Amino acid sequence: MQGENFTAAHAGPWNEMMEYVFSPLPQFKFPGKVFLNEALGLNGMEVSLGVMKPGTQVPYAHAHKENEELYLFVKGQGQFYVDGQVLDVREGSAVRVAPAGVRCWRNNSTEDLHYIVIQAKAGSLSQYTLTDGIMAVPQFHWPEEK
After folding, report:
1. CB–CB of 73/93 below 8 Å?
2. Are 73 and 91 a contacting pair, CB within 8 Å?
3. CA 101, CA 106: separation in Å to the nearest integer?
4. Residue 4: pLDDT above 80?
5. Long-range Cβ pairs for the range 122-131 (8 Å, 24+)
6. Res. 77: pLDDT tops 90
7. For position 99, what pLDDT does the model report?
């Protein structure tokens, strides 16, 4: 669905996320990861949703040339490796990694690990909510529920 100033997509329920497979190179298959860029027409950030099964890990450590990443863990628990340090992550954990940071993560638990990754060019945010937001006039009012 889209309008003049929005696009919306539905990737499906988290428990069906394993149907998606990300394969950056033929030798690497990463089930449970879907990128939303094409579906939403994103042009200032990259967003992906992921589910990692128990006992699995990202098959490679990596860094980036220009983009920082924000990892938001929304369910489950696991471990996140960055620059020689191992961090325990769980529902509610957030990890920001600068472009040069070497990162990898794994699910060392007995339940699925659900996460969201947001990626944007480092240093590109010139304003944030309080300096960029503009109050809409007139204000929107929810229709009465029946």
Report:
1. yes
2. yes
3. 17
4. yes
5. 122/66, 122/67, 122/68, 122/98, 124/44
6. yes
7. 96
d(C-alpha 146, C-alpha 106), whole Å: 46
User: What's the length of the chain?
Assistant: 146
What's the pLDDT band for 132 if we cut at 50, 70, 90? confident
CB of 57 closer than 8 Å to CB of 104: yes
Q: What is the C-alpha separation between 121 and 73, in angstroms, rounded? A: 21
Q: Could you tell me the pTM of the whole model?
A: 0.87
Domains and CATH numbers, the chain: 2-132 (2.60.120.10)
- Angstrom distance (rounded) from CA 96 to CA 87: 12
Q: CB within 8 A of 124, min separation 6: which ones? A: 44
* pLDDT greater than 90 at residue 128: no
Give 96: exposed, middle or buried? Use CB within 10 Å, 0-12, 13-18, 19+: exposed
Least confident interval from 48-52, 72-76, 92-96, 125-129: 125-129
* Residues 6 or more apart in contact with residue 98 via CB below 8 angstroms: 68, 122
